Amino acid sequence: MKHPNNVRQIREERLMSKMELARLSGISAATIDRIERGELCRMETKRKIIYALGYTLADKDKVFID
User: Fold this and answer.
1) Which of 31, 36, 64, 65 is placed for a possible disulfide with 4 were both Cys, Cβ 3.0 to 4.6 Å?
2) How many CB atoms lie within 10 A of CB 6?
């Protein structure tokens, strides 16, 4: 089952590579790749990505579609 999100779109709009997002969020580039493909991830991982993309938790629905 796919879990839709806007991580790739937002990352590319910010001209950010997967490696840069991985570095800023403190998670691996492989995990970023899996999330962008719509695979499931932990809540803590979502939180790290949201902050690394410059959003707050109040904006989580702009990044991850639940």
Assistant:
1) 65
2) 15
What are the backbone angles phi and psi of residue 21, rounded to the nearest 5°? -65, -40
Identify the DSSP state of 14: T
Q: pTM value? A: 0.93
User: 66 in helix, strand or coil?
Assistant: coil
Do 7 and 49 touch, CB atoms closer than 8 A? Answer: yes
Look up tokens 């995990």; give the residue: 31
* Tens digits of residue pLDDT in 37-54: 999 999 999 999 999 999
Q: What is the DSSP letter of 57?
A: G
